[in-house]
Design brief:
The complex is a heterodimer of chains A (about 270) and B (about 250). Chain A is an alpha/beta fold and about 270 residues long. Chain A is built from ten helices and ten strands. In chain A, β9 and β10 form a beta hairpin. In chain A, α5 crosses α6 and α8 packs across α10. Classes of the chains: A alpha/beta (about 270), B mainly alpha (about 250).
Chain lengths: ~270, ~250
């Protein structure tokens, strides 16, 4: 029996190259329908944004993918395997950073590895590397309250990268970060997607941000949430970061998304 | 160069002790000695060794009671805070304990447990435990949901979440409960020595008052306050050492 099962699991990811599949997921809170029969594919090695008005269930969907919430019905497949809870194949970046205030930067970054039982010297070496990657060298011994908002989110990002998961889930990661830092983060995201061979799922409420960083944008509409549109920018993805905001396609997509969302903004 | 907090502390001590000295010299009351007389009495008690034998006696119920309260208080607080079901059962008990007029309960304790160490430990516990339990429980219940989610998403076991997230996150409030509880424990220890049987420091206070040796009485009271302050400072040091990043500068030096 197990051999047949194996064969089935291996045959599963044939449908294009999606790392994460959401299959008719519904989520009810009591009588309130947050998500209804939502299906979505997330291509491997690319960044997909979930974009929509507030209350459209983007964060709910992300938490279901993370295994932090259980769907009422439907299933999530990661590399063909059904999600039953949080797993080593996914790492989460939180909107409010979710750092441990009593732990130094290096311990915060290494915390995911600490929970996996990696030896101290080993996990600190890995953490050191990612602290350098996100540009926080020299702050290893600092505490979160000594850092600015942007730097705190860099710690959160380094923590998610250091566990080396295939899928990175980002819940409005830059919404609590100031504008200039946010732009720097967005440029860094593009580089991360190019260099790390990971699948990124990115929740945001900023149209410009979504269009700027995404390979694929899923527009969610509320009450109950469903995917209304999937947009895949093509022409500006491989140009320089400085030229993206000037590309006609970028501007068109921003306008088009605003046109479809404006009716849903109270 | 003396640093500013230390200078302020010395200044405030000087003002308080100066006011005490002046009030003693006026005198406010025949039964109120001056600061210098009290310190002389304290010195005498120290040279004679009376104060040490007294503390050997007083510290027994205090240390036992405070240890029991801290250990079981934090344990019970964690339990009540972590489970949704037991709050309604235990919270009222501790709220009643906190509000109960302890002096009125002492005769009942004495009837049940006699006049020995047990009753005194009980008094210390009744004073110290409720605030420790209630603070711990509410601190645990108020752990930010997002750092618990963070733990779960990075594959923390339930045990990891309690030990590495909930307890450190609750520690500032747990420690403030410990501080309040331990100060109340000091009050309880002296109260038990005044109300149950005069031993230790309580004996010095009662005896000195009965022979109108007021400087000795105040020396004993002063010594217990100093001991309590030193102990609370030690506790802050421990907290600062254990959870350094939680310190946003409110821990005094």
């Amino acid at each position: 029996m197990s051999q047949t099962n194996d064969a089935f699991e291996k045959s599963e990811p044939v449908d294009m190259d999606s790392a994460v599949s959401v299959r008719s997921v519904s989520k009810n809170y009591g009588t309130v329908e947050a998500l209804r029969d939502l299906s979505l594919e997330f291509p491997r090695g690319q960044l997909t944004s979930l974009l929509g008005p507030s209350g459209c269930g983007k964060t709910t969907l992300l938490k279901i993918i993370a295994g932090l919430l259980e769907p009422t019905s439907g299933e999530i497949l990661i590399e063909g395997k059904k999600v039953t809870g949080p797993g080593a194949d996914r790492a989460f970046v939180f909107q409010d950073f979710a750092l441990l205030p009593w732990a130094s930067v290096i311990r915060n970054v290494a915390f995911g590895l600490e929970l996996r039982g990696v030896a101290k010297s080993e996990r600190e070496a890995i953490a050191e590397k990612y602290i350098k990657n996100v540009g926080l060298s020299g702050f290893e011994k600092s505490y979160p309250h000594e850092l600015s908002g942007g730097m705190r989110q860099r710690v959160g990002l380094a923590r998610a990268l250091s566990v080396d998961s295939q899928v990175l889930l980002l819940d409005e990661p830059f919404s609590a970060v100031d504008e200039q830092n946010r732009r720097k983060f967005q440029e860094d995201m593009l580089e991360l997607v190019r260099n790390e061979n990971k699948t990124f799922i990115f929740v945001t409420h900023s149209i410009e941000e979504a269009v700027y960083v995404s390979d694929q944008i899923a527009i969610l509409l509320p009450r109950p949430s469903r995917v209304s549109e999937i947009i895949r920018p093509t022409s500006f993805r491989n140009t320089d970061v400085e030229n993206i905001r000037r590309s006609p396609e970028y501007l068109d997509i921003v306008d088009q998304i605003w046109a479809s969302l404006r009716n849903y903004v109270e | 160069m003396i640093n500013r907090p230390l200078a302020l502390k010395l200044l405030s001590a000087f003002i308080v002790f100066g006011a005490w000295e002046i009030a003693g010299r006026v005198p406010v009351s025949f039964a109120f000695p001056t600061f210098i007389e009290s310190m002389q009495a304290l010195f005498r008690l120290t040279i004679e060794g009376t104060i040490f034998t007294a503390y050997a006696e007083t510290l027994k119920p205090l240390v036992v009671g405070v240890s029991i309260s801290a250990f079981f208080g934090i344990g019970m607080g964690l339990w009540v805070g972590l489970s949704q079901r037991f709050e309604w059962l235990f919270s009222p008990i501790f709220i009643v304990m906190q509000a109960a007029p302890l002096a009125a309960l002492i005769p009942i304790l004495v009837m049940a447990y006699g006049i020995g160490l047990t009753s005194k430990v009980f008094v210390v516990c009744i004073m110290a435990m409720p605030v420790i339990v209630l603070n711990t429980a509410s601190a645990v219940r108020n752990t930010p949901a997002s750092i618990k989610d963070m733990g779960k998403s990075f594959l923390a076991t339930d045990r990891d979440i309690v030990l590495k997230i909930v307890i450190p996150a609750a520690s500032p409030v747990i420690f403030s409960g410990l501080r309040l509880g331990i100060s109340a424990g000091f009050i309880g220890a002296i109260l038990s020595e005044l109300k149950i049987t005069p031993t230790g420091v309580g004996d010095i206070i009662t005896y000195s008052r009965s022979i109108a040796d007021y400087p000795s009485m105040y020396a004993a009271i002063f010594s217990i306050i100093v001991l309590a302050v030193l102990f609370l400072n030690l506790l802050e040091r421990i907290e600062d050492f254990l959870f350094e990043g939680n310190n946003r500068g409110y821990v005094s030096d």
